[in-house]
Queue: 4 jobs
Job 1
Amino acid sequence: MSLQSTETRRIPDRLGTPLKSAIFSWPSLLIVVAVVLFVVNSLASPYFLSPWSLSDATFNFTEKVLIALAMALLIIAGEIDLSVASIIALASTMMGLALQYGANTPELVLIGIVTGLVCGAFNGFLVTGLGLPSIVVTIGTMSFFRGISYIVLGDEAFKGYPASFSYFGQGYVFWVFSFEFALFVVCSLIYYVLLHRTNFGRQVFAIGNNDVAARFSGIRVERVKFILFLLTGLMSGIASVLLTSRLDSTRPSIAVGWELEAVTMVVLGGVSILGGAGTIQGVVIAALIMGLVTFGLGLLNVPGIVMSIVIGALLIFVIALPILFRKFRNRRR
Amino acid sequence: MTSQKEPKIELSGISKSFPGVRALHKVALRLYPGEVTALIGENGAGKSTLVKTMTGIYQPDEGEIRVSGKPVVLSSPHAAFQAGITAIHQETVLFDELSAAENIFLGHTPRTALKLIDWRAMNARAKSLLSEIGAAHIAPETKLKELSIANKHLVAVARALSVNAEVVIMDEPTAALSYKEIQDLFELMDLLKRQGKAILFISHKFDEIYRIADRYTVFRDGEMVGEGLLKDTSQQEIVRMMVGRAVDQVFPKKQVTPGPEVLKVVGYSHPTEFDDIGFSLRKGEILGFYGLVGAGRSEVMQSLFGITKPSKGAVRIDNEVAVIRSPAEAVEKGIVYVPEDRGKQGAVTGMPIFQNVTLASLNKTSKHGFLRLAEEFKLAREFTERLDLRAASLDQHVGNLSGGNQQKVVIAKWLATKPRVIILDEPTKGIDIGSKAAVHEFMSELASQGLAVIMVSSELPEIMGMSDRIVVMREGRIVTEFENNADLKPEALVRAAAGIGEAA
Amino acid sequence: MSQFLKLREFWLAVLIAALVFATNMRAPGFATPERFAGIVEDSSILMILALGQMVVILTRSIDLSVASNLALSGMIVALINKAAPGIPVPALMLIATSFGLLLGALNGLFIWRLGIPAIVVTLGSLTIYRGVIFLIAGGQWVNADAFSSSFVAYTRIEFLGLSLLVWYAVVIVIAFLILMSRTSLGRSFYAVGVNPTAAVYAGIDVGRTTFYAFCLSGLLSGFCGYLWVSRYVIGSVEVARGYELTVVAACVIGGISISGGVGTVAGAVLGALFLGVINGALPVINISPFWQMAISGAAIILAVVLNGRGAKRGQRLILKNAEAAA
């Protein structure tokens, strides 16, 4: 209203400086948490700061982050995919089957990735083609995909993957930097650019904020969502290659419960579960935090299941604290 | 109708502020038994805040509410309910999946001795309530979603009667009703008056206000600026109170000689929504679509824009057959659509202004699919300044703007795509008078620059003030088409739209 | 009657009957009352959990923590029974139920008071509750020989040819029929789900109603904790892992709309029974039990597809009036 009187009504681009808003953003808060965890860990255990043990620590979250990256886009667009872990199982099973027919390493990788894409396309078709709610659809395909693995494998396992195949999950690109870690860095960069620097990413945000208005603005909402499901399937396929290679075996129970861990990473990373907001930076740092917690507690010989308490509590309290703080402040006023 | 009567409910000195906004400032309102009071004011004058205060949704910062002379605190919707205040809302917010009887009695259902819900008694009482208001045709067991909007209103009124509400608030109840249904509603309001209810009636339409109301209260910018008996005042006087200055509605229509034909629609049909729609549109022309709400105008426009699929018919753009299967294809072919429902379909309210403006033209501001923020700001500035947008900054969220400024953002988004045909669906509905004038002026300027404009409007002054030609639709079909010249009488439009004066 | 044919519960019942009949063709002797009673017994716990989940889904939320809640409540009574076999079983049932209620109320409080989406809260509590099992049990299992005989018996004693487990489910189903159709709380669950805004105007506290839904879901999960441990005679971290999604699946198959406000007690019960019949039928017709997961997955997908088709009808008919007048 104060602008009314001025002669040339030139509206400024921005009010705050980008730096100021960056400092008070969710990723910055997460960085602080990560740094604190890092310091605590290095004080708690003398082994923590060794490059090789840090490198080992990356293995327990890189495969999950790959899924979380694609899941972040999907959740920002207002959808969800709970079938990711089952896609991993199915892709791994298909690779195992191909192995029985003598497939070589490139063929195995191709089969894993194509299976992921097919599963993603199936989800995408059900959600965008038939207009069904993704949460229920993917609860269904979650049972369905893993169910196929059980039909194929029962309580057996596929083993004996070729030696060259083990590179993806166990190999090192340079010194302590594993192939998995390198892929994690590359994929994080790609997804950062895709979400924050391209037209596609902008459309994802618009759809998540208001998919009707997005459609009315000429955005091909179904196509964008379909691509997102495809990407999630693709990342699950890639994760399946890595995990199968790392474990050197396929069981139908592979990666059980990962869908919830991936969602936890995404939400902890500041992506709104209701869609429309979030950053890749946040998701990556959240993944690092979860990795640090798991690794740090592991060094202290705390069993894995207890870490899940910490992760679960982290998820709730990291979201609850700002709300509690706001309530408290309003009450004092 | 003596003013000696005691008011049924009296609000005095009510103030309510939200962070950064003063919604109500020491307002007063009195409603009398057996009388209808019209609450008049522009959007943003504080009407809906007042309604929410009276129904216990908001707590006033200061002031007093008296019901039958006794001070009350309406701490919750339930408290308001118990104080005998009930509201019938815009678009009648009730429960679609529940039965009519349950909609009437939810919150005060008849119970058996064991405190369980007594469905039999509930249905019986619902039946007698419904027949009391002349709605015996509604079976109490019918699910609400199977009823028309008018019938839903009847259920809402039955609900008001079921609690013996003494104060009935009707917040734009006629917005989605047909002419006939509105007349029925007024008869029902007359019945409520005879029963001694105190009624608050909110409407933008003066003919309705003069038909049904006894008193008026005018709000402007959160303050009460006048009240009295309607028979003692004139329409001009009330308008003057509303806007704070006298306005004679002048439309900034420029005379343009229409150019060649841009758009031709032939035999356009849809199985349930419209049939055999045909018209042509020329460069520089403003084509008005008039009709009652629900005549199928928006449905035709949304189909042209690729939202819904027509069953048959053809669209020609520049004399070439055009097949439009999605909004994306419509935009490519130069047809854009400013929807009526701004909040849901028009603006992405959670995103900044500049991103809203560039949303449909990202391929122009980007390079190889990568965003270029500087280009986006440049484009956004160009069009928002042309539209005289009022905002703190271009990265402000659209949701924080007023309705009029949101509409400007939506229009800017489409102009940035350099369209050939722009369809505006109720472009000034619910926006303040200042923005309204800006939109009208801009529409006229666009036409004079050679854009072809279709304007769907239910407001007679707007349609007659802005259009070159006027198409009238009724029940999904085109009834007639008028040249808009000095000979055209508004009555002719109304008759055509309502189907009066034809063999029934 | 035509109204009846439109009910999806009716068709689901027909489908279940057809399934039983078809199985009987392949393996005569399947469609006997004893076999069917066995299937009902196998689905009892799922039915009870599905009813709790239904109430939550009606209010537009979801409770992913039910299986963890069940496992934790079950572990607590298992440990108590192991340490003090003298404590009567009804008291243990009460403990499991109250503890489940407490866990459900915790979820509900976060959702009601802080406005955090239910899926986030219960995703968190799912992992926390399961972690706590490990802590209180010190990573140990409670094995069959650790339980007192009455602890195990209280789901097995037969009454009128049916085990107590089935009778618990019957009582709870009847209680839910009354709750959902004859009490204001039951109707509030529907009202809140159909139209939260209008519910506020009708004097219903939306947050509180959602809170009660989570309490109810937690309470039933806690009770099922005892039932599960008693029936399968084991207490461990792995009890019912992943079962929350089976519960949601039963609801979806039973026609309970994930967007809230639509669903019936009969639907939830039949949805659970459907999964139970499939589980029961597979071994009888010599299909490996490993098919079960894929089949229930396919059933969910099919149910959602059919639901979606039903929802698309009911458009506005503008032209109809004109045609009637012409």
Job 2
Amino acid sequence: MMSSTNNIGLEEILSSLNQLFEGVSTEKVDPRQYKIITPPEKTIPVLEFLKEKGYSHLSILTCIDWIAEKKFELVYILFNWGTGVTFVVSTYVNRDNPIFYTVKHIWPTAEYYERDVHEFFGVKFEGNENCEKPLILELWNDLPPLRKDFDPLEYSKKHYPDREYQKDAIHEARIIRGDVRGEIDG
Amino acid sequence: MGEVKLFFGPNHPGMHGNFSVHMYVEGDIVVKARPMPGFLHRGFEKLMERRLWYQNVALIPRICVPEPDINEACYAMAIEKIARVEVPERAQWIRMIVLELARIANHLWSFGGIGGPTGMYTSMYWAVADRDRVLDIFEELSGARIYHMYIVPGGVRKDLPPKLEDKIYHLLDYLEAKIPEYETFILKNRILHTRLKGIAKIDTETCLKIGVTGIGLRATGVPYDIRKVDPYLFYDKVEFEVPTATEGDAYARISLKPKEIIQSIRIIRQCLEKMPSGPVNVKIGEGSGLRIRVPRGMAYVHVESTRGEYGYLVVSDGGEKPYRVAVRGASYPQGLYGVEHLLPGTRIDDVPIWLDSMGVCAPEIDR
Amino acid sequence: MSNRGNVKIDERTVWEKIADQLRSRSMWMLHYCTGCGAVELPPSMTSRFDLERFGIGPMATPRQADIFLITGYLSVKTLRRVIYTYEKMPDPKYVIGFGSCTINGGIYYDSYATINRLDYYIPVDLYIAGCMPRPEAIFEAFTKLMEMIRKGEANGWKRYKENYEWYKQNQLRSLGEVIIHDEFHE
């Protein structure tokens, strides 16, 4: 099952990552999962390096909104079919003007993951010309919905009217259960 | 002959689920195709951030409708990985039984589903009725037919009910006797054979390039299975084989399904034999009752679903709610990139077979 | 649960009454899986529960269908297609709201993508509560619908014509536009 390229040991890859790329830090999650934090300018060379070493399967490309730190964390999850090891490669981009570079030349499927991330977080990917086309949402006119400052309940209340009930069934259930005091009419 | 723009789905007899492909056709050959997902988008990833860790157990099975248990398993295992909690041994064996039963149910479901696009409805009537036998086991186990919410962070909800083991054995015996019939009467049936052989062919290189996993990849001769390559639960302690085929066409993919069911039956038998008695869940995180806190951290967990690699990335900031959960739907690569680049060249009447045999599942793409 | 409870005096002619008797015995259900409830339809239709003994079968095209099952939550993107499909169906047509999500949003009450109340956009004859309704509940609903048709109470399609302006206004309020575009972005 193993090809010649992924016979290189895990230790070797981790140490050569630190030697070849400045500012890259690695962290062990469990024996078969490692997190690699890279500076933005090193991310794509690191991904290319890992792909050559057998981490050729891009499981998912996604994003995390760290609103307090004013950063978006882009996460690339790579999997090695030979050894069963997962690398979680992540990098931080500025939240105010989020621009990063595409990886669709390395993994063609990334084109759609990038469209997804652009739609839900507003991160632009330079080099992906389809990146700004809507994919899942249709006629969306608000903040990208997975950003932390977007409130879905408020949006839902504004756009989709609720059913009006004559009595508050949830409140009555609470009374019956004894959580709050009150009277049930009828 | 000019090109015609055609909206295929979401309301189309050949379409499985609520998914659409927009294409240009010349005659009956597809020239250009674009996937249109998003009809089942409910914003799960956002809703999960708004609910407590345990509340999400009720929400997540709905991400993948025909095989809900993988969601619960991924989510629970990711939390356990972050919190560094060891789950009791019995709970892990029960989880394996549940996951394999779900795998059998979904294989039967999609095996029946191929009846629609090929016009061979016998497979649908047989397989869906047999799937109901599995659902009856689930009903006794968890109280629900479709959404079980049985696997929770820290273990499983409660122990197996009395005498369920006997019923599972009985079901396995029944299915084991039934599967050869499927192979004789359905797979060797001329309608199915003629309709599927050589259709929707795809090679190993393309699969690996675009990230197709699961049966799509295994039908091209590569025995990649996450249960073998990166074993979770106790998959390294049971014996099973990874069936493969070499043709890489729709027929190869469909014919792998009964073979996988046989392997699942083998796994469940071993689980039932090896399962020790003991507790089935353990407390997780800090806090009391359902309001727990999971320590700060990030973990990615993937399992082998019937359609391929299904994964959850869970991020915790130490609070009562998840900070972020990202879902990797197993059919994401073939459903989006695959449709755009591999569909052109096929005929319109083969498009449903393509989508069906590649296992394109709309709810997990849309989330 | 019948919608709005506006039971009128039976204004049907004898011929309409006979037609309704016959209609209730042969109904075609539109094959459109709008949500996750559709997963319980194949078990209901196939050998174990066998829907055909009620005279109900699946129909591929909206032009020849009588029943429109809204199986569960509706995202706004699907709602556009649902309205389009509903208007394509010939009279008389019956809508069943399937599952709690169609009644009040259900578990997705705070989602930014799904509507909270189906009868605000299209008239609904009957609701089935639960998530998800079992095949037995589906049968209960269908027999109830057959009874309503025989009594002339299932007249959502008439309400849609009478209150067309109101429904259209609600649709536009939540959706912005009800036109369907393609994915080519040309």
Job 3
Amino acid sequence: MKFLRNQLDKVKHQFEKGGKLEKYFYAYEAMDTFLFAPNTTNEVKGSQIRDAIDLKRLMMTVIIAMVPCLLFGIYNVGHQHFLAIGDAGATLGQKIGVGLWQVLPIVVVSYAVGLGIEFVFAIIRKHPVNEGFLVTGMLIPLVMPPDIPLWQVGVATAFAVIIGKEAFGGTGMNVVNVALTARAFLYFAYPTDISGDVWTYLGDAQVVAGFSGATPLSVAGDASTNGNNVIAALNSFGTGWNEGVFTLQNMFLGFRPGSIGETSTLMCLIGGLILIATGTGSWKIIVSVFGGAYAMGLLLNLVGSTPYTQLPAYYHLVIGGLAFGAVFMATDPVTAAQTETGKWVYGLLIGMFTVLIRNFNPAYPEGIMLAILFMNVFAPLIDYVVVSANKKRRLQRATV
Amino acid sequence: MSTEVAEVVEKKSEPLFSKKNRKLITNPLDIDNPVTVQVLGICSALAVTTQMKPAMVMAIALTVVTASSNFIISIMRNSIPSRIRIIVQLAVVSLWVIMVDQVLKAYVYDIWKQLSVFIGLIITNCIVMGRLEAYAMGNKPGPSFLDGIGNGLGYGLILMIVAFFRELLGGGSIFGFKVFEAMGLDYKGNGLMLLPAGACVIVGVVIWVQRSINGYRETH
């Protein structure tokens, strides 16, 4: 630690006013504050209390909350790989090794591209490097399929940071969630690499007989199209090579193919607990997303006519990326609704739209991404309505 | 007395390509661009720009229609009763649209088929109607004609830029020529660029670049 401090102090004068590298002061400052808490104190006048929790520490809390999902994702990528090639005897170490080999490059590319662009914009616009990308850079790998080509991760990250964020003015000004913008970009730009049988990393190995890389959502969708019972289709999937992969319990724990971070509802809930306990994420949004999805599931159970709509509502909470989206994406404080009542409405609508899209749009097996992006756009409107209603109520009460 | 008369005569004989009139052509290319500054004609700009060839034909068609209708309306401007001027303008524009439509059908049938309804829809293009109302109704035929050319070119310029990026990124080609293949590279088409949303993003980026170069800010 001491060594780092000394090194930073040693080069500091070059970045200060008049120094050789004056132009790059904010790049230096970003590295400095990333490693150490800033030692600036308040002036003598005014408020004397300053919390060490600045934006950077807040972002680190979110990253810590994501660690369970990331670790489990790494393990699961390896686990699914060995299941797919029929090697049941693989050890835990081998699975983690394969997982790391696949996941780490994606994380590195996402951070390198994103932070590179952030630094360039910070230097051009002469403002400190914002911390917003710390979380985004980790979210992007977690919502990618494990075998996504790395150049696509880079292009998507660049698109999301430039068009999704910098065009609107940088951190805190974006209208839609940046990580989901990256995913939506790939979803529409290179649909063949992010839909269909891409959710399991196969490598060069021969797959086991009867292998299918389908996700529970596509299995459910297909079963429904063919008029079969969806639960039966889910339970009988994978016979022979991956028995019981889509049982309710297995999907809750997350031993199934899918995007790197989204598979385990349990790990997402642990992350959610960390967010709620530290006051970083809004529990209202998390709860209402789950509530909205459940309510819509129940409603469809009552009125729906296809087999998919007869899927028990609690299934919707554990399949797909609903839990991950609810905990890490919907709670993004920049793009979510700001008013407390608005948060309930916002979350509920996300949950309901997710289940609606899953049921009625065969082109999009998973709806959480589009639902969140859609509600991001509507969040300011929700806030506006809530604030106006509040004003109206208070005006009526006023006696003047 | 005599000097005053001389002045009036001088004004009347203002050359067609005076400095002021040249501005009519150059302004719409940049600071008064119909697409990126006035945000007109967006829907056809999103619809016909997946490839460069149809975009170019569309740009030429719109330039011809705008310039010719501007010219005709400007000749008639003093005899059009103001209460029915929109109908008169529409009649003139539709005449030119039908002519352009027939010419394209006769000579570039494939592209005409690709452009389909959007040639006919030039009649409701806000740029055409906007220029008739804003310029041709109050100016002489010569400058009005130049104004139509200028706005058509301004529209065409943006169309070509958008179409260039959409065709290059979406299909890896320029004017149907496979650029990446010719260089021996394997290019994977970007599906987003083929969707109207991709065009919207590119128009946005063009506006961003343009404004950071010329420093234009909207005034409220």
Job 4
Amino acid sequence: MLRFILKRLGLALLVALTVSFISFSLLFLAGDPAIAIAGESANAKDIQAIRELYGFDRPMLVQYADWLWNALRFDFGQSYYFKLPVADLIAERLSVTMTLGVCGILFALLTAVPLGVIAAIRPNSLIDRIALFLSVAGQAMPSFWFGLILIVVFAIQLGWLPASGASSWQHFIMPTVVLGYYAMPAIMRLTRAGMLEVLSADYIRTARAKGAPEGRVLFKHALRNAIIPVVSLAAVQMGFMLGGSIVVESIFALHGAGYLAWESIGRNDLPTVQALILVFALFYIVFTFLADVLNAWLDPRMRSA
Amino acid sequence: MTALPDIAEITGPTPGQQLRKRMFGHQGFMIGAIFLALLVLVAILAPVLAPHDPYAQSLGDRMVRPVFMGGTWEHPLGTDHLGRDYLSRLIYGAQISLLIGAIAALISGLIGTTLGIAAGYFGGRVDAVVTFLINVRLAMPVVLVALAVVAILGGSLNVVIGVLGLLLWDRFAVVMRASTLQIRNREFVAAARAIGCSTPRILLSEILPNILNNLIVVVTLEMAHAILLEAALSFLGLGVQPPTPSWGLMVSEGKNMMLFEPWLVLIPGAVLFLLVLAINLMGDGLRDVTAPENRN
């Protein structure tokens, strides 16, 4: 088990390192950052001074090593736009995104797992069909459009919920639904498939044969086993969702890290964008690592992988 | 002398015939395929079908309502904030969505399939490297990276297609790797090796045709994915640029008038939803009929 964890940890670090290099390279794709900082009215001498001040005149790999060394100490440089440390900006915005992510995954799990279980217990029933419809529709639903529809119905027509902002818990209801619905179909399909498979296993037949009550068979014997892959999928989806929250945050004007990313891209604020790409990637890497470890802990067969 | 029975009577339906029968009998597949075929037709025939020039502005006819909301047949689906005919823009928008979806899926399919087959067939170090690349790709936040690259390179159709093509190859690689692993030790592959076929030939004429079914399924699903992402990028203002009639862009332009004219947002979004739904239904259906054992 320890060997497995160390191996996965090494892999995770290597992936993080590669992603950090790619996100750093974006700066070079963008052309001369000195011109971007100096503004359009600057002359050649000013630009050269900025180049030396920020160290843009050094070889790329040296700059990368420097950036990485600072990033390891949570120093992502200064935002071009706010003239503040990027790390502080992100730290300030991250709580909104994390709240949204946690609510979103909880919403997805609380709708997907019961639906998936009922659909598996009664295949081809009305509930199975509704569940299938919800998951097929969810996979095709453009999340920005879904968000706008919710705003039209619940904020404009009915006036029940606030359309934008993050000042109360009501502000998080619609974003949670939109983000959670994005993760729901995959979780529901996996729950249903897992339950169907487990329910046809020999030990379930044995449990029923010895007269265990049906509720106990379903929840103690079946669901416990079917839920293992769902937990790790949920962890992976959580990583995806934090990256996907950029769309949701922009619709509902939630000033989280996703919103900051969107604004910073529009403002050419590259240090912030680079740092955010790395932060979102790190979340995904950490969540998948936890999912792998959890899986290996619950199911020793996975440890050889 | 008795007549010899027809070959078809002895062998029964060929696998191809069986497949076609299952396809035509699959409700989801048929609904999706017919709707997609219709939209492709609409996109190709756009110059004939569109009642107006999708770029022609007419400031006197701004935000005319659709015919079912009290408008006239002059503009069946109304006009947008610049007086451009909404139906014509929707029809030309189908071209944009389908074009981006198809070419992005083609590019990512080429990258992902090459990586996946190589990893599955050669195994060992090649597999380790490809698996690592897949992990790196999955860790990159797609929307954020795509937005950043489009912002840097400028939002043209080619840039959007290129970015999506270079980002969406992960599922191809994962599925093709697994499919290749399943068949690489089968007899016909060993036989091809034994009679001295070159490795490229084995990969192209033994492996590839036998995993083609799975490849086509992933192509459809990734095409849907690319179409949704393009719409999201354009909606956020960093995809296809105005005045191009992209459905995502139309939703974004309609958003400002949403309070009084919600149909400006509802119509293009609904068409986008239906297109992606159709492609997904077709892809899911294909998976059911080509690999019933993988159904879940």
